[in-house]
Write a structure and sequence with these properties.
With 117 residues, the protein is an all-alpha fold. It is 82% helix and 0% strand. InterPro entries: ATP_synth_I.
C-alpha cells in the first residue's frame, strides 16, 4: 500500500468528514468558533500528513538519524494562529487550538485500534 493511500485510510478520510461537517455548521451559524475550528482542523490534517510522511520515512530508513518533522508541524500551527492574529473578530483562537489538537487525538485512536488487532 502506498504511503498516501495508507495515510488516507487511517487519517485523512476522518479529517475530510469533520471539515465538511464543520463547513455546514459554519454556513448556518457564521460562528467564529466554527471558523477557527475549520482552520485548526485543516492545519491538523496537514500536520498529520507531515507526521505520517516522516514516520514512514523513518520506518523505511537504514539511517541512525530519524526526524519527526517537528519544526514543520510547529510552523503549520504558527501559520494557523496567524489567521487569528489577522482576523481576530472572525476567527476564534480556541477553535484553532482545539482543531490543532485533533492530530494527537487521531494518533492515539489509531494506536489503540492497532493494538486491538
Amino acid at each position: 500500500m502506498s504511503s498516501f493511500r495508507a495515510f488516507f485510510k487511517y487519517y485523512l478520510q476522518y479529517f475530510l468528514y469533520l471539515i465538511l461537517i464543520l463547513l455546514v455548521i459554519y454556513l448556518f451559524t457564521r460562528s467564529s468558533f466554527a471558523s477557527g475550528l475549520i482552520i485548526g482542523t485543516l492545519a491538523s490534517a496537514i500536520s498529520t500528513f507531515v507526521w505520517h510522511h516522516y514516520l514512514d520515512r523513518a520506518i523505511n530508513s537504514e539511517s541512525l538519524y530519524i526526524s519527526s518533522g517537528m519544526g514543520i508541524r510547529f510552523l503549520i500551527a504558527a501559520m494557523a494562529c496567524l489567521f487569528w492574529v489577522r482576523f481576530p473578530e472572525a476567527i476564534s483562537i480556541y477553535g484553532i487550538a482545539l482543531g490543532l489538537t485533533l492530530t494527537y487525538v487521531m494518533i492515539v485512536i489509531h494506536t489503540f485500534n492497532s493494538l486491538k488487532q
